[in-house]
Amino acid sequence: MNWQKQRxxxxxxxxxxxGGTDREGNALxxxxxxxxxxCSYENLVSLLALLSDTLPPSTLFxxxxxxxxxxxxxxxxxxxxxxxxxxxxMRQVLIIQPEKFLEQQKINFDLIVCGYTSKTVLISMxxxxxxxxxxxLPEQFGGTLGYDPDAWLSKRIEIKKWQNYLAEVDTxxxxxxxxxxxxxxxxxxxxxATKLVEDEYAAKSLKKSIRELKAKEEExxxxxxxxxxxxxxSDFLDWIEGSGEKWLNSLCQVADNVDEAEGLVKQHEELTNxxxxxEEQSHQxxxxxxxxxxxxxxxxIVLQKTREQIRDVAEHFSYRVEAQTQFAVSxxxxxxxVGEFIKKSDQMLEKVCAEDEKxxxxxxxxxxxxKELDELVNSMNVAYxxxxxxxxxxxxxxxxxxxxxxxxxxxxxxxxxxxxxxQKQNRHNELASVKRLEQQQHIQLMTTYxxxxxxxxxxxxxxxxxxxxxxxxxxxxGAVRNLRNDRQDLDxxxxxxxxxxxxxxxxxxxxxxxxxxxxxxxxxxxxxEAAWKELDLAIQNNEQRLKVVESFMxxxxxxxxxxxxxxxxxxxxxxxxxxxxxxxxxxxRKRLRHDVDELSKCGNLLSTQINADHTTTAQDRQNAIxxxxxxxxxxxxxxRRMESLIGEEEEAGSSSSGKEEKHTPxxxxxxxxxxxxxxxxxxxxxxxxxxLLETNEGIAPAIRLSKNxxxx
Length: 712
Fold this sequence. Notes:
Residues 4-149 form the CRAL-TRIO domain. Residues 261-288 form a coiled coil. The longest helix is centred in the middle third of the chain and has 63 residues, at 407-469. Mean pLDDT is 77; it is low at 657-712. It contains 16 helices and 5 strands. The chain starts with 6 loop residues before the first helix and ends in a 15-residue tail after the last helix. By secondary structure, the chain is mainly α. Helix content is 71%, strand content 4%. It is rod-shaped and about 230 Å long. It has a 5-stranded mixed sheet, covered by helices on one side.
């Protein structure tokens, strides 16, 4: 149908389908007689044929002809064209008769003579409602049915366009456009909404074409899907068995350092991403196979086997990729731990191999250095343990995927690396142990130096203690005895400290030799000897002073005993003879007076020396001097008391007459006649009376009373 050629005739309403029907349901076809002069017979037949094709083939037509303004020949022209174009589809022809009676008779006669196959009815205008309802008649025949030729033609042209589109898609499936299909569906819906016969027929025709096209597309799509599925399976298997297998095998290796391990991990990540695409492709192929099995039962068995093969191959390849990826990641972690261990071991080795100076360092610096080395060794050992654990994990990974990996080769490679790490760690620990021993020797040497310095300091403190706390503050036998006992303890402490210092110096000397360090043992030895000499001299001086005080105390005690003895002798003689004179015991009394004078001089000298010793406090010195003076005064008081007996008797004897009783005094060696021994040491020789006292009572020796002797 070429509506473009008939466009003007349709617009001029030469013939048209208003959309109405007669009372019998036949489609109404109106042929206008006003345009007959401008239309040829062929065009009229073609137009009528086009109009009839817009309705279903079973449709019968009622043709409406207006002959009020035409001649009989023109009526024959129309009837012949309608009979040729519509043939058996024309149910009847309603001819609106002319107004003139003669014209009516001519037409009626002609219809009878010609014998048209279709029923022809000559009818006036006002009787059309007998055959056609008013609402089905066009307005030009007194009806109410509207008709717009422009809209009707546009609709026919669009219908033709969609028919051509469906024909093209049927011929070439690549021209199929989903947007066009949607527009076509909307157009068909509009046609159905008009409820016009020709529109409903066009809509049904288009729907039928669409269904046929979809059926054909489905049939073609099944064949295309099978071909596409076969090609996809082939490409899938070719990639896995070809490029994928080569790629996977090229990555099946053990990296020996961190850089290689990182490179392998990155390549495995790329392969993993590709594997995910392959798995997705396998799922798509399996899904297509499932649909094809339902759509094409004749190839269901083959498709099922293909689907299972695709799944098995994809899963096995994915498992191999995962196994190699897991091993590569584990090996990367192992190599990182190995690198960390090597870094820590190099730092420790650098610390161990650092050259030390020959001089002895301070103990704080040695302790800090030793602590740093210990930290480095601990850090190295921790890194070693981490590396060993990572290596064991890598070995476990290789054995876990032994069915898809060369596990024995991988395990042997990792084991050699672990063996190398173990040997390296042992060597470094041995070097660290040697360095630690050397540092310990240095620390011991410095500790010995400090202990030696402390011993020297103790000797000095003992000397200060001797001067400060072992001076005479009480001139008393108990205090002197306690002082001597304490001094003996101090002497033992001093000797022990000195011997301890000598032992420390010997140890320091041996440590210097073993560590080949330049030390200061000789200097400390000199300091120790000097401190000991000073302390020993102070002890000797203290001992001499203590002996002098002891001698003074012993002499004081002996002289008090002599005075008391002489006084007892005088009283005994006085009791026996009843009188005393100046010659009685004169020798003993004279010696006693001389010894008392010597004791007084000795006490004064001792007081002078005590007062000159400023190591003690002034109060202690004054207290000691006062006690010495009190003891001398005590002896002199006792002597005066004894002499007073003689004086009283002489005064009484001058008035009495009696013969003086003779008394032979006991001989005793004067205390002042004690000789000096050669060599300057004190070795006192006592008078007979003193020796008797010593024999009888065990008294300690007294001091000598030579005039030119130093008592300290």
